[in-house]
Write a structure and sequence with these properties.
Length: about 600
C-alpha cells in the first residue's frame, strides 16, 4: 500500500463535460472530465477507486488526527494537557457548533460514498472471480468501517447504501437511522467481506496493507460485541485465533507494533493498519482534507504532533493519566524488570532503563529525558504519550508538526483479538481456563506471570481484570477505549462514573510518586516557575478538571459520550435531527431496553 499512488481529486464523481456542435453530430467527450457513467466499468477503474477509500480513511477527520484523538480524549487513559484544543471532547460537553465535530462526519461519508460507488459498478464490470471478490470485499469493508465509526461517534446517522439515491435531494438528504439499523448494515458488510476477501496468507503481496478477510472478521466481532452478541463474537474470534482467516500471532517484541519501517509494519500481529509513508520518504504538502489533492502530499499523520511535548516541537495537546502510569508500574515482570509496555506507551524516564539491554535506551527524539523523571506536556503538566510516535525510535531530534509521522496506526492487533476473546468467553461461560489462556498469552509476551482462573470467583471479577487492567496495559492510548466505555455501559452506572473520574483525576506538585490517592506531578508555569500543589481533580485555578461531573461524580452533560450531530449538517439537511448529545439526554434507558447489563465495580 505504501507504493500505491493517491488517486488525485479523490475521485469526485461529478460533472459531465461534453462539447456539442451546432448540429449535434459531433459529441466529443472531454477525457479530463470523466463522468460516473463512463468511469468505473473496468477492473483498472475500480481498483483506482478502491485506493481512494484507503486515501479517505487516512485523512485528518478519519484517522490522521482528530478522528483518532477524539476517541482518546473521551477515554479515561488520556486527558487534555493543553486545556485548549480538544478540551470540550475531554470534558464531554462539546457543542454542535464546534467545527471539529464535523470532521469525522465529513471523512467517513466521503469514504462510504466511494465504497457505494464501487458496489454500484462491480457487478456490471465483467470481472473474474478473484478480482470481483477483492474489489467488492474491500468496498464492503470500507462501507462497514465508515458506518462503524460514524455510529460510534454520532450514534444515529443517515443510512445511504445505494449510490443511485444521490441523484435526488430526497435521497441525499435522508433522515437519521437508528443505531441498530446502522449496525445491521455494518454487521452484514463485514460478514460478507470476510467471506470473499483473501487472507493475508493467500493474498500474497497484494494483501500487504490492504483489508483482508482477517480484518473484516475482526471488525465483525467488534461490532457483535458492541451489541452484546457475545456468543456469536466468541465463535468468530476463536476462528481468527485458529487461523481460519490467516495466520496471526503476537510479535515477540511489543514495541515493534509501534515502529515504522517494512520490518515492523504490516507484521504478523496486525489485522488492519492505516498506511503512512516513512520518515524521509514523504512529500512536503500537508493534505488535511479530502479536497486537498497534491501529488507531493506528505502522506503522514499528525497524531504525533498532538501527543509530543513542546520541548520536542509538538503541540502538547494530550497527555496520559497518572492512573495509567501507576497501572503499568504496578506489576513487575517475572525477571524483576519493568513492564516493557510502560516504555513504549509513556514518555517517562525510569532509572532502571539505563541497565536494560533490550532496546529501552531512554531516547526521546534523540534527546535524553530529564533526570526529574518525565517531560511535562504544556503548562498544565502531564505524562507524554510516546505510542505511535517517533519518540522511542531516534529517527529525528524534533517533531515537524503536521501530517509527517510515518508510523502506521495499527487499528486492530492480534493482542486485541485475544483480549476480546477472553471477554466473550467470560461472558458466555464464566471465568475459566480458556479465557485466562488468552489473557496469559498477552501477559507472557510482556514478561508478566500467568494468572489462574481460580483467582476470579465471578464474571464480574474477571471482567474488571480485563477492562481495567489487561486492556489498558496492552492497548493504552490506542484508538478504541471510548468505544469500549460505551458498549460496557460505564456512562450509565454511578459506580463506573466515579471510577472514570478517579482514573482521570490527579494532583500536581514537585514530584511524581505514590499511589492513586496521592499522585503528584511537577508543573511550572510561564507566570510563576515555582512548583505548587493543586488539588486532586482540579486545575491550577481550583476548577474541576472534569467540569462535566459534580462532587458526587454524577454525569452532568448526559448523552455526550457521543459527539453531537454537527450544526452545519442540521442546517443543510431538513430531515436530520440531533442525537443524545444535541439534546443532552441520557442513553441509560436505551441501553437497558436492549437488555444489556453493566458489570458492577469490583474493588
Amino acid at each position: 500500500m505504501k507504493k500505491l499512488n493517491i488517486l488525485l481529486a479523490s475521485l469526485a464523481f461529478a460533472g459531465t463535460g461534453v462539447f456539442t456542435s451546432c448540429d449535434d453530430q459531433l459529441d466529443v467527450e472531454n477525457p479530463n472530465q470523466q463522468t460516473t457513467d463512463a468511469f468505473g466499468n473496468t477492473e483498472s477503474d475500480l481498483n483506482e477507486t478502491i485506493i481512494a477509500c484507503y486515501n479517505h480513511s487516512r485523512m485528518e477527520g478519519s484517522y490522521a488526527r482528530v478522528g483518532y484523538t477524539i476517541d482518546l480524549c473521551r477515554g479515561d487513559e488520556v486527558w487534555n494537557a493543553s486545556q485548549v484544543w480538544y478540551l470540550p471532547f475531554d470534558n464531554l460537553n462539546v457543542t454542535s457548533s464546534d467545527e471539529i465535530t464535523e470532521w469525522p462526519w465529513r471523512e467517513w461519508y466521503y469514504t462510504l460514498n466511494v465504497a457505494n460507488y464501487v458496489l454500484s459498478k462491480v457487478d456490471g464490470a465483467g470481472l473474474d472471480e478473484e478480482a470481483y471478490n477483492q474489489i467488492k470485499g474491500q468496498a464492503l469493508f470500507f462501507r462497514g468501517l465508515s458506518y462503524y465509526n460514524l455510529t460510534g461517534y454520532y450514534q444515529n446517522v443517515p443510512l445511504i447504501t445505494d449510490y443511485a439515491e444521490y441523484s435526488t435531494l430526497s435521497g441525499l438528504y435522508k433522515a437519521n437511522s437508528s443505531q441498530d439499523e446502522v449496525l445491521d448494515v455494518v454487521e452484514a458488510d463485514f460478514k460478507e467481506a470476510m467471506s470473499i476477501l483473501p487472507s493475508r496468507d493467500n493474498g500474497g503481496e497484494w494483501s500487504k496493507g490492504r483489508a483482508t478477510c482477517g480484518a473484516a472478521a475482526g471488525y465483525y466481532a467488534r461490532t457483535l460485541m458492541f451489541r452484546h452478541k457475545f456468543a456469536e463474537a466468541n465463535a468468530v474470534l476463536k476462528d481468527i485465533i485458529a487461523g481460519k482467516y490467516g495466520k496471526y500471532d503476537l510479535m515477540p517484541n511489543y514495541g515493534d507494533n509501534f515502529r515504522e519501517g517494512s520490518e515492523f509494519e504490516n507484521n504478523i500481529e496486525s489485522l488492519y493498519e492505516v498506511q503512512y509513508l516513512d520518515y524521509g520518504k514523504q512529500g512536503t504538502d500537508d493534505e488535511w482534507t479530502p479536497v486537498n489533492t497534491s501529488s507531493n502530499a506528505t502522506q503522514g499523520h499528525a497524531v504525533e504532533s498532538n501527543l509530543t511535548p513542546g520541548v520536542f516541537g509538538g503541540w502538547a495537546d494530550l497527555a496520559a493519566s497518572p492512573w495509567l502510569y501507576n497501572l503499568l508500574k504496578s506489576e513487575r515482570c517475572e525477571d524483576g524488570t519493568l513492564d516493557p509496555r510502560l516504555y513504549w506507551t509513556l514518555g517517562t524516564y525510569e532509572a532502571e532503563y539505563d541497565t536494560y539491554v533490550d532496546g529501552r535506551n531512554n531516547m526521546m527524539f534523540q534527546t535524553e529525558i530529564p533526570a526529574e523523571g518525565f517531560v511535562v506536556n504544556a503548562n498544565n503538566g502531564g505524562i507524554p504519550i510516546v505510542k505511535n510516535t517517533g519518540a522511542r525510535q531516534g529517527l529525528y531530534s524534533s517533531v515537524v508538526t503536521g501530517l509527517h509521522c510515518g508510523v502506521n496506526l495499527r487499528m486492530l492487533r492480534f493482542a486485541d483479538v485475544l483480549l476480546l476473546a477472553a471477554e466473550c468467553e467470560n461472558e458466555v461461560n464464566g471465568p475459566n481456563d480458556l479465557a485466562l489462556s488468552y489473557i496469559n498469552r498477552v501477559r507472557n509476551r510482556a514478561g508478566l506471570k500467568s494468572l489462574s482462573s481460580s483467582s476470579f470467583s465471578s464474571k464480574d471479577a474477571l471482567f474488571e481484570q480485563i477492562a481495567n487492567v489487561e486492556r489498558p496495559k496492552e492497548l493504552g492510548c490506542e484508538f478504541g477505549r471510548g468505544f469500549d466505555l460505551i458498549r460496557w455501559g460505564f456512562y450509565y452506572n454511578e459506580g463506573r462514573m466515579q471510577q472514570l473520574l478517579q482514573h482521570s483525576a490527579f494532583k500536581k506538585s514537585s514530584s511524581f510518586v505514590g499511589s492513586l490517592s496521592d499522585m503528584e506531578l511537577e508543573v511550572a508555569t510561564n507566570e510563576d516557575p515555582a512548583k505548587r500543589q493543586i488539588e486532586v481533580g482540579k486545575d491550577d485555578k481550583g476548577n474541576p478538571i472534569y467540569d462535566n461531573y459534580d462532587s458526587s461524580y454524577n454525569y452532568l452533560e448526559q448523552g455526550h459520550e457521543y459527539i453531537p450531530v454537527p450544526l452545519a449538517q442540521l442546517n443543510a439537511n431538513p430531515n436530520l435531527v440531533g442525537n443524545s448529545a444535541n439534546g443532552t439526554t441520557s442513553n441509560a434507558s436505551v441501553y437497558a431496553a436492549h437488555g444489556y447489563s453493566i458489570h458492577p465495580v469490583v474493588k
